[in-house]
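#structure-requests
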Amino acid sequence: MPTPKPDLPALGLLDRTGWLSDLPLDFRERMARIGRRTTLSRGASLYEVGEAPQAIYGLAEGLLDVSIPIGPDEEVTVHRAPPGFWIGDGALLSGLPRVLSVRAAADCRLFRIPHAALIRVLEANPGDWMYLHRLSTLNAALCMHTLAEVIALPPRARFARLLLRIAPPDGTVHATQEELGRMAGMSRAAFRRAFRSLIRSGALETGRGTIRIHDRAALERAAQETGG
């Protein structure tokens, strides 16, 4: 019978899901010692493009929108991250200013690990660098997976996968249709067609500022479609 994994109360949910949860106990203990819990109100910025990096962040509760600039005065939200998500590693590994903006799409609880303290841990434990590169690889894979969906999938399947990825356990997604269309990389017309089709199928229900997954099995079937 497997030995139960010890809980680290400082990390809360992040000790049970996401990047850090799969790593050795001694590394998780080091992160728990140097990190601190913090909060971010809905609409507030965690960091913006061009800022000097200060920390990496794990999302314990709430939702984070990740946006990327596509012009001097224009950006697009490319991901709405659920709890268990970690971000901020790219600037640590590259030494570059922030290349993404991250904002709270709901009231958030986060675990903040300051870069300076993290660097001291990495200098004392050089093998820990592997775990930061692992986080970077996971986030790069998420980016490539999202891009592949935009390139290869029809709108209905792409929208279904987006909802399955970002919906919390109760299945209620708090987002406008415009926000979801941007995240799915769709034109307004394509998004409206996909949205109406999924409502007609019974997979989704709409409310004021929300979309609720009514029939998850139907949504999962739509997510596997490959036709045009």
